[in-house]
Amino acid sequence: MLLECRNINFRYPGNEALLFQELSLVIDTPGFHALFGPSGVGKSSLAKIISGQLTAEQGAVRYHNDGRVLYGYNLERLPGWSSVGRHLERVTPAHHRSLKEALIEAFGLAEVMDRHFSRLSLGQQNRINLLRYLVQDFNALIMDESLANVDEKTREQILLTIKEMFPDALFLYISHNVVEVAAFCRQILVLRGLHKMPRVVTVQGQDRMKGREIDRQGLQQTMLEIMNAA
Ligand SMILES: Nc1ncnc2c1ncn2[C@@H]1O[C@H](COP(=O)(O)OP(=O)(O)OP(=O)(O)O)[C@@H](O)[C@H]1O
């Protein structure tokens, strides 16, 4: 077991209805895992419970050896008092300086390092946000729509790079892009509406890696299974 949520009950303050009732899931392996499901079903809320930003009324979240779980999402904004390059320097531990440089190159961000966050495009802002989590020490990173507004080809390059550079980390990738989650993720955890049982259905993904072609028929099959589960 790498990550386990057991019998989670959760409701937002002031709400009578539970958002999660006895929700359980287990992730056994590192790599890319998707959290997929319709808008409003609770993906971000569950991500915040897993990362400790929200507390469940009941139940437990356990991460193997109490590893560090980070949560990044696409609407985060950096303050404007310095360039994005300076911001990244501040959050990067000394032992990850070369990692930071490699990620800046791979994410196509070298030419924006002197600019201020608010002057970047949404896709550039989201890549900077993601990068600032990747340079920290972590065991698991939740990427909540972290590549929104980034073009498809760059997203593909970024996902393949992350998978190659962080083979031992666990990634929980939240996205509405069914083709992408089917192609790149090892498992897709489909979160279903409150009245559906089981609440989470796991579908095996194609887990695409750098230099390995995707099996088109397998991809179609995975997409079908995801849509049937949702
Ligand atoms: N701070 C809050 N207070 C009260 N209710 C909230 C709060 N944040 C979210 N909700 C409600 O909880 C439910 C789940 O929201 P959540 O953002 O987790 O869904 P999601 O699956 O991530 O949606 P999306 O795909 O649209 O981002 C929604 O009905 C939402 O209105």
Automatic annotation (TrEMBL):
Domain ABC transporter: 3-218
UniProt keyword list: ATP-binding, Nucleotide-binding, Transport
A GO MF term: ATP hydrolysis activity
Pfam family, one: ABC_tran
Domain of life of the organism encoding this protein: Bacteria
Record keyword Disulfide bond present: no
Protein name stated in the entry: ATP-binding cassette domain-containing protein
Originating species: Desulfatitalea alkaliphila
